[in-house]
Amino acid sequence: MTDPALAARLHDVQAGIADAARAAGRSADELTLIVVTKFHPASLVSALAELGVRDVGENRHQEAQAKAEELAALDLHWHFIGQLQTKKARQAARYARSIHSIDRERLVDALADSEFDPATTEPIDAFLQVNLTEDPGRGGVAPAGLEALAERVLATSTLRLRGVMAVAPLEEPAAEAFARLAGYSERLRALDPAATAISAGMTHDYVEAIAAGATHLRIGSAITGNRPEPR
Ligand SMILES: *Cc1c(COP(=O)(O)O)cnc(C)c1O
């Protein structure tokens, strides 16, 4: 049974995305909506799937793994968007088709697999998370390290470099932060013209992200409603 309020919120966000794309002179077809379902039960993910959602985002490995296993029959595209421990990387690679939080060379190395066979297995879509603040404690590679990290991904056959990812800092207008991110995306495309994706935009800043060129929106609470307390 699908909750009509969930359907209405999904529809509102889809309409908001279409409006923002139009205002930016872009086509909504260029945009992938990833519904962030963290802390919500698997039943919410299956309700979203019934409404046509194919792309879902999770930020904690154990929770993501459990839901992906339970819902394997739905064949969803699971996006891993949170901090990923090196020692969990290989496990996350079994269910995640995209990882948005590639932020260090050790993590790239942990995702490498000498037995990887491109004839039978798709590589994982890799987004390089860039830190848009001066605080090294926040997630993401410092902008100065972007090219080195990208080269490492390009040398790793299990990964396909897709683009950049970032979370806008709270302490500055999102549009300014996303403008910097667009510049990092250009730097990445100078290395690999195929790495065109920009993963940016959440519930409160997806309009600004679309205006700045985002291609992958990670939207949670505007669609799912308030998150339960993390367990
Ligand atoms: C939780 C989360 C989101 C979604 O946040 P909302 O504000 O609920 O839309 C997006 N990206 C990341 C990395 C997150 O952790």
TrEMBL record:
Residues 32-228 form the Alanine racemase N-terminal domain. InterPro entries: Ala_racemase_N, PLP-binding_barrel, PyrdxlP_homeostasis. Gene3D superfamilies: Alanine racemase. Keywords: Pyridoxal phosphate. Pfam families: Ala_racemase_N. The modification N6-(pyridoxal phosphate)lysine is found at residue 38. Pyridoxal 5'-phosphate (PLP)-binding protein, which is involved in PLP homeostasis. Belongs to the pyridoxal phosphate-binding protein YggS/PROSC family. PANTHER family: PROLINE SYNTHETASE CO-TRANSCRIBED BACTERIAL HOMOLOG PROTEIN, PYRIDOXAL PHOSPHATE HOMEOSTASIS PROTEIN. This is Pyridoxal phosphate homeostasis protein. It comes from Leucobacter rhizosphaerae.
